[in-house]
Every structure is written in C-alpha cells, then in structure tokens.
Specification:
- With 432 residues, the chain is of the alpha+beta class.
- It folds into 2 domains: 163 residues, 3-Layer(aba) Sandwich (Creatine Amidinohydrolase, Chain A, domain 1); 261 residues, Creatine Amidinohydrolase (Alpha-Beta Complex).
- It has a 6-stranded mixed β-sheet with strand order 6-5-4-1-7-8, sandwiched between helices.
- Strand 2 and strand 3 form a beta hairpin.
- Helix 5 packs across helix 6.
- It binds glycine and manganese (II) ion (2 copies).
- The site of glycine has 7 residues, from loops.
- The site of one manganese (II) ion has 5 residues, from loops.
Length: 432
C-alpha cells in the first residue's frame, strides 16, 4: 500500500467518467469475502475492475463515478472490535482522503443514499451479469430512484463492460512494470523447477516446488490453479488434480503462473520428466514451437488481434501434415478445421489484472487491431487423445507452449523468455 500511486486510480476514474454519456453514473462492487466453510474464509482477492478504478482492497465496498467526474466510495465503517479479528479497515473518512474520493459513506447507508444520488439521471452503468446478488441490488436501487421521479423518464441500465475492458486493454507504464515482474517471477520459477525435476517425482511434488518458487521469489499466490499434467493427462485442458505419479518416459505439461501486485503471469512448458524427448514427443514439440513462433510474429501493431489464431492454425496444420498426423490437403484441413482433432483451444487471451483479462476482442462487430502496450498470451498446443485415428506411438502425447507477450512499436517482447523453450535448451538445462 505504501507505494500505491493514488493518482493513477484517480486518473482512471476521470477517464471512465469521460467515456460515459452526460448525466450518467457508473456503479461497481468490490469482491465479497467468500466463506470456505464454517468460520473460515478464502483469502480475499479484490475484484479486478473495482481495483482498477480504486486501488482499494476491502470487501463490502461500492464505487460510484459520476459523468461529471466526481467519485464516491461506500465502505465499511471503522470498527475497532472487528479490527481485533479481521485487521485494519480504512473507514469512509480516511479512505476518502487516502484514495482521493470526493465523498465516502458507510456501506450500511447505501440503500438510502444511492437511489437519491441517481434519481433523475439518464443512465446507470454497471457490469451487468457478473453477480446475481449485485444485479438484484442494482435493480432495486434503480426502481427506488425511478419511483422518486415519476414525471421523468426511467433510468436506463447499461453494461459498461466493453468501455472498462477497452481501458484495461492498453496497459500503462505502471502496469507494464508490475506485469514484467509477475512474468519474471513465473519464468524464474519454471526454470528452477525444470532444472530440479527428475524421474520419481509426482505431479504433486512438482506442484509443491512451483508454489514454493513463486513464494520465495515474491509472489504470494498463483494467478490460477496450476495444471501439472503427466503423460496423457496433458490432453485434459483443465486438469488440476495434480495428484498422479509421472512415469519415466512421459512428458509433463506445466501451466503455472503467479500473481504479483494484483497482476497475472501465465506460462506453460512441456518437458520430459527424464530429461530427454522421445522421437514422437520431439516431433510434436517442434510442430507446436513453430506455430508458437509464427503466432508471436503475427502479433504486430495494426494487425487484427485474431491473426495469431489464424497463423497458428495454418502452421500447426502444416506441421501435423508433415509428421503424418493429418493427411488431407492443407486447404481441406483448414476449411474443415480438421486440426481441431488435435488443437481444440484458442491461441491465447489478453492478460493483466485477470489471467484471462476482462477485455474485448472485438467492438461493434469489428475485431480489434493490435496496439502498443497490449499484453497477450500465445499458447498453441497439440494433444493426441486415445480416440484419435493415428498410430499408437503418438497417443497420450500432449504439448502446449505458452509465453506472455507485450505488443511494442517493433513488434512484440516476450516477457517470459527466461524459461527455455527450444527442446535442446530444455534437455540441456535438465541435464545439469
Ligand atoms: N492458464 C490458463 C490459460 O492458459 O489460459
Ligand atoms: Mn496458461
Ligand atoms: Mn493462458
């Protein structure tokens, strides 16, 4: 908190106000503290959109931004008794000063104050559909406000998601330096575990090592539940059991990223637990790597953000054809999307406060073009399930390679380049 630059958040609220029509307000909720089970909670993680506009890290808070630029916070009143149990809370008075709000009130007063604030306004902007509980409150506040102003038009409810997502899409300098750090921690961690991994270690052993590396390198939490998938489990995209042995001769696919200063990193590497790729594993690995490199090069200022997807489909299809896993012509493979037998997810996603950042890929039906300071993952994969009609020797091989890239004026910068990606570099690191 000490080094939080409050002016950044104030400027973002001003920008959000500019993006609203006159006579409108934007209302956003904090995250809730979630109960784990009796008397225990999950660690609190602030809602990313709420954090983006406030920097405020408490639950039970609501932000209002008015189109005239004023902003108001509702938060918990200070409670010394509760602070003995749950720790420091700002309270409205100190929060107003510290975080640069124009006004701040006790959250318990919101049902009275908010309808009065919005009565007679034109538009109520919010992030509709994220929480049914908050949506119900929004409807109640709007209905109450409309009843207070019978002789005026009713307030329109609008989803502000694309506006806020478009703001979050272009990272500012402060965000880029935090993302850089998050990526560096994740990269150092991957490299270190890859070097220590050996036959006899289970998925669980590796998970423990990644978690430890994240923490000792400065990240308290992963940015998502890691995937540590030995052998054929790599073909299950959302495998998170991470509790099986890894057989000698198997690859292990590790998709693990960390959170630093609220920002995510997201890295996947696939490596042989015994330190040496088999012929089939290496052939598939190189096909995926070629698609990865081609997709990265397509991420360039001015190109449609779907170009890496298209390029990866083409490159993977040619590669799968070259190694004999697909036999139709390239045109037929692409036209009938035959590659989907082996590549059944997208090339990547925006990354920032959320690992899958809450930002649009198209606006008004037009796909977005890459601009400087966007951050995206590039993560092609090939997965040969048992059901595939291919020679047995290929079955059970699953490979994904994932890096996080920053779009810059020269093309892109790989923020996670510290983890080896060439098969021979991985083998060399693992032999040390
Ligand atoms: N780790 C989730 C993803 O790669 O999208
Ligand atoms: Mn990932
Ligand atoms: Mn990803």
């Amino acid at each position: 908190m000490s080094d939080l630059n409050v002016n950044i958040f104030i400027a973002r609220r001003a920008e959000a106000a500019k993006r609203m029509e006159d006579d409108s307000i934007l209302v956003l909720s904090s995250s809730k503290l979630s109960l784990r089970n009796n008397d225990t909670t999950f660690p609190f993680r602030q809602d990313s959109n709420f954090y983006y506009l406030t920097g405020f890290q408490e639950p039970e808070s609501v932000l209002i931004v008015h189109s005239d630029g004023r902003s108001i916070l509702f938060c918990r009143e200070k409670n010394p008794e509760l602070e003995k149990w749950d720790g420091f809370m700002w309270g409205p008075k100190a929060a107003k000063e510290k975080f640069g709000f124009d006004e701040a009130y006790d959250i318990n007063q919101i049902d009275e104050i908010l309808p009065n604030l919005i009565r007679g306004h034109k538009t109520f902007n919010s992030l509709v559909g994220k929480s049914s509980e908050f949506d119900l409150k929004v409807t109640a506040w709007i209905n109450k406000a409309n009843k207070m102003e019978r002789h005026q038009g009713n307030i329109d409810l609008k989803n502000f998601s694309n506006q806020l997502g478009s703001m979050r899409l272009i990272k500012d300098d402060a965000e880029i330096s935090i993302i850089r750090k998050s990526c560096e921690i994740a990269a150092i961690s991957h490299r270190s575990v890859m070097q220590q991994a050996k036959v006899g270690m289970s998925e669980y052993d590796l998970e423990a090592m990644y978690m430890n590396e994240f923490k000792v390198n400065g990240s308290r939490e992963p940015s998502y539940t890691p995937i540590i998938a030995g052998g054929a489990r790599a073909c299950i995209l959302h495998y998170i059991d991470n509790d099986q042995d890894i057989n000698d001769g198997d690859l292990v696919l590790v998709d693990a990223g960390c959170e630093f200063g609220m920002y995510a990193s997201d890295i996947t590497r696939t490596y042989p637990i015994n330190g040496k790729f088999s012929g089939e594993q290496r052939a598939i690995y190189d096909v995926v790597l070629e698609a990865h490199d081609a997709a990265c090069h397509a991420a360039k200022v001015g190109n449609p953000c779907t170009d890496p997807q298209k390029i990866s489909e083409k490159s993977l299809s040619q590669g799968l054809k070259d190694i004999g896993l697909l036999s139709a012509s390239l045109d037929e493979i692409l036209e009938n999307k035959l590659f989907r037998e082996f590549y059944y997810h997208k090339i990547g996603h925006w990354m920032g406060l959320d690992v899958h950042d809450d930002c649009p890929y198209s606006v008004d039906g037009k796909e977005l073009l890459f601009k400087e300071n966007m951050v995206m993952t590039i993560e092609p994969g090939v997965y040969v399930n048992d059901s595939a009609e291919v020679d047995e020797r290929w079955k059970g091989i699953g490979v994904r390679i994932e890096n996080d890239i920053l779009i810059n004026s020269d093309g892109y910068e790989n923020l996670t380049a510290k983890v080896p990606v060439l098969a021979e570099d991985i083998e060399q690191l693992m032999s040390k």
